[in-house]
Amino acid sequence: MHAANRLHNVSEYYFSEKLREIQTLKSQGKPIINLGIGNPDLPPPAQAVQAIQNAVNELNKHGYQPYKGLPELRNAIAQFYQKHYQVSLNSESEILPLFGAKEGIMHLSMAYLNKDDQVLVPNPGYASYSSITNLVEAEIVTYDLDENNGWQPDFDALEQLDLTKVKIMWVNYPNMPTGGKSTTELFEKLIAFGIKHQVLIVNDNPYSFILTEKPLSILSVKGAKKTAVELNSLSKTFNMAGWRVGMLTGNKDVIENALKVKSNMDSGMFYGLQIGAIAALNSENGWFESINSHYIKRREIVWKMADQLGLKYDKSAEGFFVWCKITNGKTSHEMSDYLLYEHDVFVTPGSIFGSKGDNYIRFSLCVDEKQLEEVLNRLN
Ligand SMILES: Cc1ncc(COP(=O)(O)O)c(C=O)c1O
User: Fold this and answer.
1) Which of 227, 261, 281 is the last residue of a domain?
2) Which of 3, 118, 126, 358 has the fewest CB atoms within 10 Å around its CB?
3) pTM of this prediction?
């Protein structure tokens, strides 16, 4: 059987392949510590766990649920956006709950991209923007992010491009993998760019509560809803990555078109998950301080590791990754392999995020202090 042509430019997700190798090494007795993946290890809010447990016992709530989520969940998302980002959203038309931000990349691509349409994709950037563009057989146009520019797009360079076939621009601030910051000025420039060139700007925003000064949404910029939507997620904010709860917010026509795709792909989110998600979204501010207190301590240890390895990094970066520049001439894969095979530590090679990540490796802060101290000892 021949697989479809659309699979020609898509390979297995890097981590699914790499985790198999790590598993094999572990089964051979290697004490691998995985600093590769951004999978929060801290528990979710207690009230979310309690709420889903209670909801599971409601025996008449195990059937299909509304395609666009419970009104109560959309209301909780609207309140969350108002409270934390000072953004008003209409919970009927401007919010679509998702199974994580990642699936939204597919829905938007299916809803907006014809074959041969072009898509602006950051380099380095989250791999799914490219792989999903390939899956829908549209054309990737990469734009470089540079550390000298705070990892922001170079708008002068973008203006030089022929943008007539560009339909979507993926942006992601706070940025993964670089830790580049979200700022209102940056979001204003992006919105102006989207309006001028009639490009749908999608800010993928799962990291806005992790080691940031203040959470920001691109939708807080005046006029943003004309040209932009935002993907957001409970995965990192509430340590609920396995629950698969996220959201698409913003321009109502875009939401409507995404729903046309989504409602043909799934049949609603389990009631208990939605009730648990509502409880998480209603968390007090102390929640964010509490998770960040862990990440601050962990980051200190990772900085020491980076110093030990002669790597360069930015102490003001946002999100829960430490993005480090390699200074000894090794490529990112060589450095990652060196740490894996010599020290039993897995870190992500920057090149999986694009060619501009070639000189970098990425450490995750989703590992407890004890294991991080162990890695530091191994490196010493
Ligand atoms: C930039 C970025 N976008 C989206 C996601 C996926 O988030 P979710 O778990 O909500 O699908 C991740 C997860 O690693 C990410 O780093």
Assistant:
1) 281
2) 3
3) 0.96
- Is the per-residue pLDDT at 10 higher than 90? no
CB contact at 8 A, 165 and 118: yes
- The response to whether residue 124 sits with its C-beta less than 6 Å from ligand 1 reads no
- The count of structural domains within the chain is 2
Does 172 sit in the ligand 1 pocket, CB within 6 Å?
Answer: yes
Q: Which domain holds residue 82?
A: 46-281
The residue type at 156: D
How many angstroms separate the alpha carbon of residue 102 from the centre of ligand 1? 6
Q: What is the rounded distance in angstroms from the CA atom of residue 51 to the CA atom of residue 42?
A: 18
pLDDT single digits (tens) 309-364:
999 999 999 999 999 999 999 999 999 999 999 999 999 999 999 999 999 999 99
Mutating to test ligand 1, I would choose from 105, 230, 236 the residue with most ligand atoms within 8 A of its C-beta, which is 236
299 and 176 share a domain? no
Dump the DSSP string for 289-351: HHHHHHHHHHHHHHHHHHHHTT-B--TT--SSEEEEE--SS--HHHHHHHHHHHHSEE-EEGG
Same domain assignment for residues 313 and 363: yes
- 260 with 375, same domain? no
Using most ligand atoms within 8 A of CB, pick from 14, 99, 102, 132 the residue to mutate for ligand 1.
Answer: 102
Last residue of a domain, one of 231, 251, 281: 281
CA of 160 to the centre of ligand 1 (A): 30
Evaluate whether 239 touches 44 at the Cβ level (below 8 Å): yes
